[in-house]
Every structure is written in structure tokens, then in C-alpha cells.
Amino acid sequence: LSERLTETFRNLRTKGKLSPADVDGTVREIRRALLDADVALEVVKEFAAKVRERALGDEVNRALNPAQQVVQIVNEELIAILGGEQRRLEFAKTPPTVIMLAGLQGSGKTTFAGKLAKMLAKDGHTPLLVAADLQRPNAVGQLTVVAERAGATIFAPEPGNGVGDPVRVSRDGIEFAKRHQHDIVIVDTAGRLGVDAELMKQAADIRAAVQPDEVLFVIDSMIGQDAVNTAKAFQEGVDFTGVVLSKLDGDARGGAALSVASVTGRPIIFASTGEGLDDLEAFHPDRMASRILDLGDILTLIEQAQQNFDEAEALKVAEKLANEQFTLEDFLEQMQQFKKMGSMKKMLGMLPGMGNMKQQLEDFDEREIDRTEAIIRSMTPAERRTPKLLNGSRRLRIARGSGVTVTDVNALVQRFEQAAKMMKTVARGGVPNIPGMGPV
Ligand code: GDP
Ligand code: MG
């Protein structure tokens, strides 16, 4: 898809001023890229028109760097369609929170039910899975297996009771949850291979009976151009409060995300990314925007860098590094800057030539940063400035003070030394510098 698009942006970057022809050329490429990504035509048209209008407007002409501004506009508009901010699940004021799932057969509802139960259980909730798919012979069995693997309880009609009534099972399930202190109820419903009236009515009846706090529409991201019609049908037939994109691990470019979000105006809350029960992620509009544009996350980096990286701070650190005065205090400041920018891993992956560093810091997650902060805060100013002072008894004191083990303190010091070395390398080549974008 996007080598062409990346090329277009690269050409734009080197130009000082944009002509209307430049803008039209770029918009054409964006249209093609989005269609390649399986975004529905009606959505593509609207999007391209909006970008064109903004790109030709005053905003860009007055900008210091018009090319960069167009890149920014594309990114902003994509994020806006995808819902802007990340949206989290909403819980009921009085438990149980009822979450109902809807979607076509095979879209991934049952799998998602298990994933969500597992994720919520990990957060200390006690989810109950309700088997309201009584259509397919094997559906209850499948949910039973999923529930077991997720460590969740299942509520299903007694076997041998003939074909149950999904509305009644759902209602009984919620009563069961109240009696047995389940604070969340996930209602798995039936689907059809295509949209049909009976299916819609059943889902709408369940919705009316159980008054869910969230109705999540699960859609297969590989569905392509059908995404719009399916989503519209479910919005009219049942309506939903949020969307779950499933099978985002495949070749899907995420075009369905853009189509569904755009035509329904409903936020995407989760991305399901595999057959395993742990393959579930909160949906981030900004990351999806760059996935769709396939710009190697450079757009996100630019934005984050602009928003969060304090240039003066960066220069100060770079100077210190050049003079080899990098201390644990600087390290802490640096950590906090990185934390603001998003995960350290991701940052390093995005910086050209830093691929091998990324490997080194593979297990460096944000909780690590918090722990690091706690440890450094337990040091005296002298220790922070001169880490060589950190002998065994000082390390023990620091470990006690910050509630970690001496091994953790040792690991931190080692990481600090690694980072100091790494930062020196960066400093020699200048502060993080993105090709074509000028210094950050
Ligand atoms: P339902 O009919 O909507 O309940 O869909 P299922 O949960 O039964 O899923 C249908 C098929 O898709 C199953 O084979 C699942 O293993 C598979 N599946 C579900 N979610 C994902 C996902 O995120 N990634 C992949 N690769 N497969 C998935
Ligand atoms: Mg199912």
C-alpha cells in the first residue's frame, strides 16, 4: 500500500511551499492508500474532501512548514474519525455491569467474551459469561470451554431442556449474577452468516430485556467493503455503544475500523488480535491511524515529540552527555520525558538506527519506569550525581527505602550505565533527529 504514500510525503517534505497541484496529488495518493486498505468508498470520499479543504486553507499557507502541516492534517483527521481519544468500558454505578455482544456469526464474539472475561478478572472483577447463543448446537459448549480457560463462571440453560429462549437465559443470567456477587455480566449472543431480520429482532429483544450498560458490536476486520453495510444494519437493528475489531492480527489493514467508526460514529473500544485469550488490546485511535497510513509510526513520533519533548530539556541533556556529566538525576528526567512520549520500546524502535537498542531494552516497560523513579527518589542527591558512591550498604538502604530488592537496585544501576553509554552515542550524532523533519 503505502510505499507510494510514504514517497509522496517525502517529496512534500522537501518542498517549501505547496501549490494546489501538490495538494491534489497528495490527496489522490491518500485516496488510493485508503481504498487499498479496504476503507469504504463513501468514507474515503468524505475524508479526502476534508483533507483537501484544510490543506488548501489558510492554516497551511500560514504554516512555517506547509508540507509537514499536510501530513499533520491527514493524521489528525484519521484520528478524529477513529474517535479521537481512547474510550474505556463504562461500568454501572450499581453492579452488575451488563455487557452484551452482537455481531455476525464467526465475527469473534465468543472468543472476545473469553478474552474480556480474562482481562476483567485480572483487574479483580468477577465476570459471569451468559450463553445466550442457543442457535448453533455447539455454541454453549464452545463458551463453556472459553469460560474455563478464562477462569470465569458460565451461566447456561440446563442441557436437555430443549431449545431455550435466549431472552430468558439472559435475564436469568443477570439474576444469577446478582445472587452470586458477579460484578460483570457478559452476554454472548447468536449470529447469522448474513444480516437477517430474525437475528436482529432476537438481539434487540435481549437488549430490551437486560438493559445492558454496554452493547459491543464485534466485527471481523477482514470483512472489507462489507463493513459499512453490516455496521449500519446492526446500528439500526440493535444499536450499540461501542465496537470491537476482531482478527486485527491478520492481513487486515484496519480499513474496516475507519469505515465503521465513520459511518456509525461509535467508538472502537477493543482490538482483538489473535486466537489466544490474551490477544486483546485497548484500541488507540492514534496507533490505528498510523497503521492505516503505514508510515512506520513516524507520524505518531512527530506528534508526540512535538507535544511532549521539551526541546530545552533535550538540549541540556545532550550537552551534559557531551561533557560526560550524565547523572541519575538526568536519567530520571529522561525517563519521565520518554514516559510522556509513550513506551520507551516504541520510541527506540522509531528512531532511525536504534533498532539494536530496542532489542537491548526489550523488557523495559512503563512500570519499570515507575519503579526506577521510586529507587532514584530514595537516593541522596550526592548518590544521584555520583553513582559510583553506590556501595553495598547504600544499595541496601535504597532498596529498603523504595520497597525493592538489592537486585533491583543493581539492575537499575546497570541500566543507567547502559543508558549513559547509549545517550552518549545519540549525543554524538545529535539529539534524536528524524530524517527530513529537522531537529526535534
Ligand atoms: P462468533 O461466532 O462471533 O462467536 O465467533 P467465534 O468467537 O466463534 O470466532 C470465530 C473464529 O474466529 C474462531 O475460529 C476463532 O478462533 C477465530 N477468532 C476470533 N477472534 C479472533 C482474532 O482476534 N484473531 C484470529 N486470528 N482469529 C480469531
Ligand atoms: Mg459465538
UniProtKB/TrEMBL annotation:
Q: Which HAMAP family match?
A: SRP54
MF terms in GO: 7S RNA binding; GTP binding; GTPase activity
State a single Pfam family of this protein: SRP_SPB
Q: What is the originating organism of this protein?
A: Microbacterium mitrae
Q: What's the protein called, per UniProt?
A: Signal recognition particle protein
Kindly list the places in or outside the cell where this protein is found, as annotated in its UniProt entry.
Answer: Cytoplasm
Q: Which Gene3D superfamilies match?
A: P-loop containing nucleotide triphosphate hydrolases, Signal recognition particle SRP54, nucleotide-binding domain, Signal recognition particle, SRP54 subunit, M-domain
Q: Which gene encodes it?
A: ffh
Enumerate the InterPro entries for this protein: AAA+_ATPase, P-loop_NTPase, Signal_recog_part_SRP54_M_sf, Signal_recog_particl_SRP54_hlx, Signal_recog_particle_SRP54_M, SRP, SRP54, SRP54_GTPase_dom
EC number(s) stated in the UniProt entry for this protein: 3.6.5.4
**Can you list the GO cellular component terms from the UniProt entry?**
signal recognition particle
Biological process (GO), any one: SRP-dependent cotranslational protein targeting to membrane
Q: What does this protein do?
A: Involved in targeting and insertion of nascent membrane proteins into the cytoplasmic membrane. Binds to the hydrophobic signal sequence of the ribosome-nascent chain (RNC) as it emerges from the ribosomes. The SRP-RNC complex is then targeted to the cytoplasmic membrane where it interacts with the SRP receptor FtsY.
